[in-house]
Amino acid sequence: MIVTIIIQAALWLWFLGCTVTYRIGNSLLVEGMGIRSAEFAVLCLYSLGIAAFYRLRPAGRWILFGILLLWFIVQFMCHWYYTIFGAGEKKLKGYNDCFRDTVRLFPVSEKVLVPDLYHIVLHVLILLNIAVCALRRGM
Q1: What's the rounded Cα separation, in Å, for the pair 130 and 132?
Q2: pLDDT digit string (tens) for 65-76?
Q3: Would you state the torsion angle of the CA atoms of residues 36, 20, 96, 25, taken in this order, to the nearest 10 degrees?
Q4: Mean pLDDT (whole number) for 50-73
C-alpha cells in the first residue's frame, strides 16, 4: 500500500509542475500554465481519481485506471507518436520552440521529436501508476 501511495504522490507532485513552474537551479524543468489551463484540469481529474481509488472500493480502482489510461493516450499522441512515427516540419518546430529552454537528457533534433526530461519522467510515472492500479489486489 505504501508503494502505491508513493507512486501516486510522485506523479501528483511531478505533474503539479504543469501548473506551477519548476526549476533546477537556473534551468527550466517545466513551465507552469496556471490554474486556468488544461493541465490543471487534468491534475484535478487525477486528484478525483485518487480519491475514488481510496473511497470507492473496488470501483475506484477502475475509475483511476480509466483516467490514467486516457491521460497516457493523450500524452502518447502529443509526444511519443511523433517521436516514433515522425513529425512534420511545423509540429517539430512548434514542439522545439515550446520546450526550447527545458532540461533535456537528449539534444533537440531538427529531424525527430525528442521529449524533454520533464515529459520522459511524467510518462514513466503515468505508466507506473497504470501498472500499480492494474496490478493492485484486494481493492
Answers
A1: 6
A2: 999 999 999 999
A3: 170
A4: 96
Distance separating alpha carbons of residues 45 and 37, to the nearest angstrom:
13
Cβ atoms within 10 Å, residue 10:
15
Question: Are the C-beta atoms of residues 119 and 46 closer than 8 Å to each other?
Answer: no
